[in-house]
Design brief:
With about 450 residues, the protein is an alpha/beta fold. The chain folds into three domains: about 60 residues, no CATH class; about 120 residues, Aspartate Aminotransferase, domain 1 (Alpha-Beta Complex), CATH 3.90.1150.180; about 250 residues, 3-Layer(aba) Sandwich (Aspartate Aminotransferase, domain 2). The chain has 18 helices and 15 strands. The chain has a seven-stranded mixed sheet with strand order 2-10-9-8-7-3-6, with helices on both faces. Strand 14 and strand 15 form a beta hairpin.
């Protein structure tokens, strides 16, 4: 067996060309030492022991990138999934990005009342805007919707019972399970109805002197079909108010308007203002789904209940920071002005017509063909995604590239900027619905480089 090479010195490995961009930094020295120590440990255990300087330098470069370029990296979403949880959900509007830049360029009046010069509250910045959009007496913002639900239960229901339909005791993304959130809040969950059919009378029959609230939970990322029944918000509110208890509605997707005006298939998501009109005492939702803003939890409802949530000790742990508030404020303002369809990317993407998408796909395919990439177009379907409108699809036209899909998808992800596509039927599909107009040139450049990396220039 060939004897293992002698390990290089720290100085020799640090001078390797693969580490040139970090040369002379303390991090480079730390990376080199870590890699050499790791290789030495392997050899002591009789493993590997054959790495040369190039392999060790590559390992050191990987160590440095993982720490000095931690990401997340910006990517181009060509999957057609509009609210893509793995890709950060909603891309921010230009106004929201400008607001974040403005509030972080220096100090900001996050908790200062500029009129009086005294301490203010971060909760006041978007409070009137969100309350107006929801038609509610009051509103507040948390870090995300899971935090909003936990805060509502902790502030309003601790020590009591909360009624939840068996069909709504769900788990959504990241292991967020309603029964576990109930236990964490200090409330006791009481199941009512059955998995597929729950009636308003089921809630009424389950109410006891210990009952504090009824909670309606948006199913988010699944749909039940067939022999099912679910009472409306209005029906459940009548039961709750007749017995003097609170109705909390987790509306999930953050819809501020009825998306049925875009496509009949998009109707059905709970609209926050409608939930309030129908009698919900507190409604919660995500700011980074159909709302199209940053990660945030939207809360609106009766002033007395929202005030209890705002003053609860948990509020400090789940409060939003200045960047989230700035981006959310700019996003909500677009909804109130009535120009969200043009200004908020998620809203614009959902409204793109099949004809517009076909024209875009044809133009992109022609440019790829001119660059030597055998692109074609084909009809397909986009998805709203992100726990919104589960099972609903929208007509689109995709740019299609021949395989091998695994190698080509990997090559697309390895480029700068990375492109995230989807593979179907032995081909790679690029859906223009979720590619921003300003990303078209970068998409084509990345797709061209990836294609030629896999197939060679002569392909």
């Amino acid at each position: 067996m060939t004897a293992p090479r002698e390990l290089p010195s720290v100085d020799r490995l640090a001078a390797h060309p693969a580490l040139a961009q970090w040369r002379g930094t303390a991090a480079a020295t730390q990376a080199v030492r870590a890699v050499i120590d790791g290789e030495r440990a392997l050899r002591l255990h009789g493993e590997t022991g054959h790495a040369d300087d190039d392999a060790l330098a590559a390992a050191a470069a990987q160590w440095l990138r993982a720490r000095l370029e931690p990401g997340p990296l910006r990517v181009i979403n060509a999957t057609g999934i509009v609210v893509h949880t793995n890709l950060g959900r909603a891309p921010l509007s230009a106004a929201a990005r400008d607001a974040v830049q403005g509030v972080t360029a220096g100090y900001s009046a996050l908790e200062l009342d500029l009129q009086t010069g005294t301490r203010g509250s971060r909760h006041d910045h978007v409070r009137p805007l969100l309350a107006t959009l929801c038609g509610a007496e009051d509103a507040l913002v948390t870090g995300n919707n899971a935090a909003a639900v936990l805060l509502a239960l902790s502030a309003l229901c601790k020590g009591g019972e909360v009624l939840v339909s068996r069909g709504e005791a769900v788990e959504i993304g990241g292991g967020f399970r309603i029964p576990e959130v109930m236990r964490l809040s200090g409330a006791r969950m009481v199941d009512v109805g059955t998995t597929n059919r729950t009636r308003a009378a089921d809630y009424a029959d389950a109410i006891t002197p210990r009952t504090r609230a009824i909670v309606r939970v948006h199913p988010s990322n699944f749909a039940m079909v067939g022999f099912t029944e679910r009472p409306s918000t209005r029906e459940v509110a009548e039961v709750a108010h007749a017995h003097g208890i609170v109705l909390i509605e987790d509306a999930g997707s953050g819809a501020l308007s009825d998306h049925g005006d875009i496509d009949a298939a998009l109707a059905g998501e709970p609209v926050l203002a409608q939930c309030i009109r129908d009698g919900a005492d507190v409604v919660t939702a995500s700011g980074d789904k159909l709302c199209g803003g940053p990660q945030a939890g939207l809360v609106a409802g009766r002033a007395e209940l929202v005030a209890r949530m705002r003053s609860h000790p948990l509020m400090r742990a789940v409060r939003p920071d200045r960047m989230a508030l700035a981006a959310l404020g700019a996003t909500l303002a677009a909804h109130l002005r009535g120009d969200a369809a043009e200004q908020v990317p998620v809203q614009h993407m959902l409204r793109l017509t099949a004809q517009e998408l076909e024209a875009t796909a044809l133009a992109l395919a022609e440019r790829l063909q001119a660059a030597g990439v055998p692109a074609t177009v084909a009809p397909s379907q986009s998805a709203a995604g992100g726990g919104s409108l589960p099972g609903t699809t929208l007509d689109t036209t995709c740019v299609v590239l021949p395989g091998p899909t695994g190698r080509l998808m990997a090559a697309l992800r390895a480029q700068t900027p990375p492109v995230i596509a989807r593979a179907e039927r032995g081909r790679v599909w690029l859906d223009p619905r979720t590619v921003l107009p300003e990303e078209h040139d970068a998409l084509l450049a990345t797709a061209g480089r990836a294609w030629h990396a896999v197939h060679g220039r002569g392909a």
